[in-house]
Amino acid sequence: MYYLYSHNDLDGVGCGILAKCAFGEDLEIRYNSVTGINVQVDKFLNRNADQRNSEDKLFITDLTVNHDVEQRLHQYVQEGGKVQLLDHHKTALHFNDYGWAKVDVHHADGRTSSATSLLYDYMIEQGLLERSVVMDQFVELVRLYDTWEWEAENKVQAKRLNDLFYMISVDEFEAKMVDRLRDAKEFSFDEFEEKILNMEENKIERYIRRKKRELIQTFIGDECVGIVYAESYHSELASELGTEYPHLDYIAILNMGGRKMSLRTIHDHIDVSAIAMRFNGGGHAKASGCTIGNEVYRLYVEEPFELEPIRVDASRNQFNIKGTETGVLYETTNEDQIFVFMTSSGQWVVEWNDELLSFQFETFEQAERHIKRNYGAWLSKDEDYVNKLSDTVRDIRTRHTDPSSQLTDNKE
């Protein structure tokens, strides 16, 4: 008998689907949360202490166990038990000290790994599965989504596979995928799936638009963080927010009902798994998470609670356009005006309420990043931009035509 204990997300269930293709009915699968895996494995070890079958084999995929269960697993293997742990999170690399575990963050060809892709390679190497085009395609879609590479490569089908996973029950998803991998020549969605996926995409767009208006910004440690409360569509929401607000180092999504915090970043200079580890969590460099404990609650909920949401940049401008060398106008919650423009020497500078600040930047993006991170500024509408330019022209004209103004200038 084979036993597979895996994570309850797409990558974890992808492992279960491969296992069903390989072992058929001679398999028991349990999908677990990050903390639930310890209880599940503990039960297995207690049960098998008295009823050990030399043919039984336990697979643990996409999850790792705590120190106590780790030691029990090692003892179980030393006494003749069969275990294979496969994971791809760098926070689990110490499991490579055991012969019964394999943790690879990357494949030999350099691709970032997922649990499903690692299990697929293992099963092919062990002769438990035969490679096929449809299975290659399915495994790659799971890998692309789980590693967030789907967005950079514009592999929308990977995202749609994850959408489908959350739209139907796990049992139905498993059955559909197992039949497809066994019978189809290439991976695709059927007509009904395409229809409900299109409906789901419209629903996600509406949800993200609403959540954009709820995003708050603050500094936690040295990082500028965007915080939002959301129970659904974490990956899609974080991707959209990270792209819309690149000045934020990472996005923290808090699911208060589930008492979980997800961390996402689009940047290479930030490793959110290291941040999650501060709170006994973990994951990938660009996607991690942890439980909302007392410290997380204080930093991400209690202290920023009174902050106002980020104001959205004006989106329909024809004149006040980002990167315009003659000047771009921003404003703040205190009704201050910030004007960013390029000097004759090619440097970008910042005026605060018509007063030139001492900062200079090589690019417009650097200047905007600075004012958004430090002042919470947003792009003004064309109307305010035109009014500012009109006021500036009026001031210049006054200084050149008003005798009293000239007299004042001469006295100075």
Write a brief structural summary.
This protein has 412 residues and is α/β, with parallel strands linked by helices. The protein has 15 helices and 16 strands.
Describe this structure in words.
The protein is of the alpha/beta class and 412 residues long. Helices cover 45% and strands 19% of the residues. The chain is built from 15 helices and 16 strands. It has helices at 10-23, 36-50, 67-78, 115-125, 133-146, 149-152, 156-167, 170-183, 191-212, 234-244, 272-277, 294-302, 364-375, 382-401, 403-411, and strands at residues 2-7, 27-32, 57-61, 82-87, 101-103, 216-220, 223-229, 250-255, 260-264, 282-283, 287-291, 328-331, 337-342, 348-352, 355-361, 378-379. The strands form 3 sheets. The protein has a 6-stranded mixed sheet with strand order 6-7-8-9-11-10. It has a 5-stranded parallel sheet with strand order 2-1-3-4-5, with helices on both faces. Helix 1 packs parallel to helix 4, helix 1 (10-23) packs across helix 8 and helix 2 packs parallel to helix 3 (67-78). Mean pLDDT is 92; it is low at 406-412.
Label this structure with key terms.
412 residues, alpha/beta, 16 strands, elongated, disordered C terminus
End-to-end separation in angstroms reads 94 Å
Regarding quaternary structure, how should these chains be classified? single chain
- Please tell me what the overall shape is: elongated
Order the strands across the largest sheet as they lie in space: 6-7-8-9-11-10
The assigned structural class equals alpha/beta
Question: Quick one: biggest sheet?
Answer: 6 strands, mixed
